[in-house]
Amino acid sequence: MKALTANRLTDGEVVFWKQGQWLDRFADAELFDDEAVAEAAEAHAKTQVTLLVEPYLIDVAEVEGGVAPVSYRERLRALGPTNKPEHGKQAQGGAQIEILAHAHGAASSKGRIDLIKRK
Amino acid sequence: MYRYDDIDQAMLTDRAAEFREQCRRRLAGEITEDQFKPIRLMNGLYLQLHAYMLRIAIPYGALNSAKLRKLAWVASTYDRGYGHFTTRTNLQLHWIKLKDAPDILDALAGVGLHAIQTSGNCIRNLTADPHAGATADEADDPRVWAEAIRQWSTFHPEFSFLPRKFKIAVTGATRDRAAIRIYDIGLRLHRAADGELAFEVLAGGGLGRIPFLGPTIRERLPARHLLSYLQAILRVYNRLGRRDNIWKARIKVLVATLGAEEFARQVDEEWEASDKAAVDLPDTELARIRAGFAPVGFETLPPVSAAFETAKLDDRAFARFARHNITAHKQPGYALIDVSLKAIGETPGDCSAEQMEVIANLAERYSLDEARVTYEQNLILPHVKLDDAPAVYRLLADADLATPNIGLISDIIACPGLDYCALANARAIPIAQDIARRFESPELAEKIGELKIKISGCINACGHHHVGHIGILGVDKKGEEFYQLTLGGSGEDDASIGQSLGPALPAERVAPAIDQLVEVYLRERTTGERFIDTYRRAGLAPFKEAVYAEAH
Question: Is residue A114 part of a domain?
């Protein structure tokens, strides 16, 4: 599953594509199951040069309670900086924000910490 | 402090006007993003994760009340009421709108501030010893020479398209407080035995993917030849530096490839063939710049202040602050006061507009209208009377700026990391916050003593992790954050590159691992040993064992 995102030219705000519109919330993003449709939307977005900077497709997956971007970076873009919860999209709060904030990505490793065997 | 002359001021005004027109054309669709991006970057305007970021240059970290107040005004008018001081002693504003950028540059130009050469493959903002002009161990004021380099390098046509960015640090002191060994060029002023003022010149230091400490390529360069010799270094780099691979394009790779001796030989050859007099600063011009840094307003005071000594006896918190945040001044009766931007649980280097106003007022009233930015992301009031130190402390404390932790475990360097930066792989700020909270107790921090933790959210190493006593590097594993620890780095006189402790840890394991490392240190240390000394004596093994041994 994919979504289409970009930064808005005038203020850099993170925006998401929904059927020809650019909206602020990831919760409103159109989700593409069909890769060709996603790429067509991306190609169109790349022509909107007075609206956007660097539109691109992101991977999205089902998580508990809904869907979320797979990569931590994209979840962070959809939320805002974690050191200032009052800034960014997360400031609005709500169930959709909570889903993103609690989503996990593809990495399953918890780190290799028990490496040294004590005798 | 040095004030820009009419030529400088006209340049800033013209540049702001030019950028206004370029922004208008971009917003109107007359130029594309590909065409505009290098232009906005040359004006310090980056596009990051959530918004545009404006990187404002603070040449050699020097601020006064007017500049601080203007930064506070810009932060509260056009941003979200705060700014972030960086390891390059710049100020970054993280929530800027493109449409506001021309107005901001106009406002900054009014007080001699700008964002020129804070990006791009040119000579970047200069950094210098933040104790300049206030420390007794100084052969000469490095700001004089840093300002000369700033004027020479600004819009320098020959060096505006180098293979990669280029950073210069200058100190005039015996003790290195400017991290000159990790710079493309490091300069240390000293007075030779015969009294001549000279530079020790280091070249080819740098962190990033391949860290190097800069070797000395010339022990004694007569100070008057600084600019012609810098030109020779830049010319050799411009000619031979790699342009085919961004990861190998910094001067450090060239110096390491040629060897310091051969690099120095080629620089000498270029230097001797050049018309030195055409580039070197005339004595009259040097004197003009020097006059801008002449000490003004010091009073003749006794070296000991009764008010200061009494305050230390009466107030334990002030005594602790004095131990860690107050340093001796060359002028009797004066001191340097470190303003900690590392309040426990806050973002390292962040300063709110209100705090900037407080520091501006303190600088104006108590510090001969000067403040400095340090590469360790703190500020300094450089010229405070010891008699006034208790009052300054109280006013700083009221603004949450008096955490007594300079050089201690919670005085952590952290880059903005993945919370803001488009290049980052992992967050740095929350890791710093976790560690600071864990070592919140000032008694514990003082017991541990000097311990420099430095955190970068990616291999570009803006957080100087390679030279942290404990370095922490954020990495990305399948889209999630992990952290590699290094031990034994230092960016100071005992400079060294840290060694990897072991495999990367998940975020929640980092602060506990720091705890384990500190436990080993407290157990193993002998009298007078700092963390890094114990590491250097005992080696990696006991630390590695503590963090990676199988849990029971």
Answer: no
**A111 → chain B, closest CA residue:** B505
Q: Quick check: helix, strand or coil at residue B261?
A: helix
- Position B376 scores a pLDDT of 98
Q: What is the ipTM of this complex?
A: 0.91
In the block, tokens 């030279």 appear at B467
Contact A9 B504 (CB under 8 A): no
Return the residue of A nearest to B52 by Cα. Answer: A12
Read off the pLDDT of residues B136-178 as tens digits, 9 standing for 90 and up. 999 999 999 999 999 999 999 999 999 999 999 999 999 999 9
Rounded (10°) angle between helices B306-314 and B316-325? 120
Query: Structural domains in chain B?
Result: 6-109 (3.90.480.20), 134-291 (3.30.413.10), 306-398 (3.90.480.20), 413-548 (3.30.413.10)
Chain B neighbors of A7, CB-CB under 8 A? 47, 51
Tens-digit pLDDT profile for residues B499-516: 999 999 999 999 999 999
A34 CA: distance to closest CA in chain B (Å):
23
Under 8 Å CB pairs connecting chains A and B tally to: 124
What are the tens digits of pLDDT across the range B525-547? 999 999 999 999 999 999 999 99
CB contact under 8 A, B479 and A110: no
Beta-sheet pairing, B326-328 with B371-373: unpaired
Residue A117 lies in a domain: no
What does the DSSP assignment read for B401-438? ---S-TTSTT--EE--GGGT-TT-SS-SHHHHHHHHHH
Give me the residue from B52, B477, B548 closest to A115, CB to CB: B548
